[in-house]
Design brief:
This is UBC core domain-containing protein. InterPro entries: UBC, UBQ-conjugating_enzyme/RWD. By secondary structure, the chain is an all-alpha fold. The radius of gyration is 20 Å and the shape is extended. Among the domains are: about 35 residues, no CATH class; about 30 residues, no CATH class.
């Protein structure tokens, strides 16, 4: 990931681009430039061991928060409903094109 940002970084790139790049690298990691060499080696040579270890780390570090009281979704559904505007379609098309361009660069 660091190599990607060292090579292709410009000040024009916003947080959206950075987060999208991180998401893509999490989905399809590049073991040749892994920050954790052991994990990169496991990914390349012993994929089953890599997935087992990833599951263990996920269970340890990605636990959902525990709530003392049940969380109600009623408050969420009571919020205002967003109105559709004529410019939304153009904006969505532009975002889709931008996303495709970013993914092609990876």
């Amino acid at each position: 990931m660091c190599e990607y940002f060292k090579k292709d970084w410009t000040s024009d790139l916003g947080i959206k681009h950075v987060l999208l790049t991180i998401k893509c690298l999490l989905i399809v990691p590049n073991p040749e430039s892994a920050l954790n060499e052991e994990a990169g080696k496991l990914l390349l040579e012993q994929y089953e061991d890599y997935t087992k270890r990833a599951k263990i780390y996920t269970e340890i570090h990605a636990k959902p928060p525990k709530f003392s009281e049940p969380v109600s979704t009623d408050a969420i559904s009571e919020g205002p409903i967003a109105k559709k505007h004529a410019g939304d379609k153009k904006l969505l098309d532009k975002k889709k094109k931008e996303k495709k361009k970013i993914l092609k660069r990876l």
